Amino acid sequence: MKILVTGGAGYIGSHAVYALIEQGHEVAVVDNLVTGHRQDVHPKAKFFHGDIGNYRFMRDVLTTVLPDGVIHFAAYSLVGESMANPFKYYENNVGATNSMLKAMSDAGISNIVFSSTAATYGDVLEMPITEAAPTNPTNAYGETKLAMERMMDWNRVAHGLNYVSLRYFNVAGAHPSGAIGEKHDPETHLIPLILEVAAGKREYISVFGDDYPTPDGTCIRDYIHVMDLAEAHILAMKYLLDGNPSTTCNLGNGEGFSVLEAIEAARLVTGKPIPIKISPRRAGDPARLIASSERAQSLLGWIPKQPQINDILKSAWKIQKF
Ligand code: UDP
């Protein structure tokens, strides 16, 4: 396949690019390097520095590369920031994707695999969450991703766009080579922060709220290995290129870990004490998010190879130590 990856210098995008190239596919990357890292783009990928919201730039890239499809990661993705600055999220996520879809349509590119999120669901009572669950995001980030999904569906109706939206739960871990990993600046995600404490780079991990309606009072999340996630994107693109209809799939392991359980697992994996500090709740956090990934398994043939949180922590720890 010949694939254009937007956001291919970011955390998840760079891992998907590595997986695509390792499987012999041809890859071009578009990234504005606002949050991504140029050195994380696989050396065999063709790199275009620019913004997906720049219509002329994107149309030129698309008509030059003529990919079989686009895997679209480029977006802002921080819940807390989206609550403080929704303008930024609507402009960069919704506005820029609208412009990019127009460029795709004008360039005659009709297949897209989209990086969506469990945050599209909000607080759901029934676990595990299936794709039939109602979508009521509790934060602006999730709201923008849901709007992007809906936008793709209207363009399916109007322009024959074929899409797979992949709603990820909590992603962590790194490429087995250690060449790339999770490096947000500033880091806000739980697993890398816990491991930074273990590595002695931070004094303690703040636990955001211990009064949620969960057994230990801390939020429960479903953690998935970034390489399993990368594989799901490749399978989703093959699914579209085989002529299958547009769909939305959850990606998770179907098992939930509380913040305190994740910290305890990290203590065992690293052998370090990892002090904690109970802090106020973070705005916009649902109490529990656990995926049913049955649809991804049956439609895409996706089987996570590293579903254990210990393996995810071990692979992230390998990067953190150096
Ligand atoms: N969290 C925490 N302390 C931190 C960072 C995150 O307690 O320093 C919690 C957060 O409230 C959420 C879970 O860990 O319940 C996972 O958060 P993360 O930001 O990693 O992913 P999200 O669920 O927002 O996608």
Write the layout of secondary structure elements.
Blueprint lengths: L1 E5 L4 H12 L3 E6 L14 E4 L5 H11 L3 E4 L6 H6 L1 H22 L3 E7 L22 H20 L2 E7 L1 E3 L17 H9 L6 E4 L11 E2 L1 E3 H16 L5 E5 L5 E2 H12 L5 E4 L14 H7 L8 H12 L2
Parallel strand pairs: 1-2, 1-4, 2-3, 4-5, 5-6, 6-11, 7-10, 8-13
Antiparallel strand pairs: 9-12
Helix pairs in contact: 1-7, 2-4, 4-5, 6-8, 6-10, 8-10
The protein binds uridine-5'-diphosphate.
Task: Characterise this structure.
There is one protein chain. The protein has helices at residues 11-22, 55-65, 79-84, 86-107, 140-159, 190-198, 226-241, 259-270, 294-300, 309-320, and strands spanning 2-6, 26-31, 46-49, 69-72, 111-117, 162-168, 170-172, 205-208, 220-221, 223-225, 247-251, 257-258, 276-279. With 322 residues, it is an alpha/beta fold. It is 39% helix and 17% strand. The strands form four sheets. The chain has a seven-stranded parallel sheet, with helices on both faces. The protein has ten helices and 13 strands. Helix 8 packs across helix 10. The two termini are 34 Å apart. The mean pLDDT is 96. Bound molecules: uridine-5'-diphosphate. Uridine-5'-diphosphate is lined by residues 79, 170, 188-190, 193, 205-208, 219, 221, 259, 282, 285.
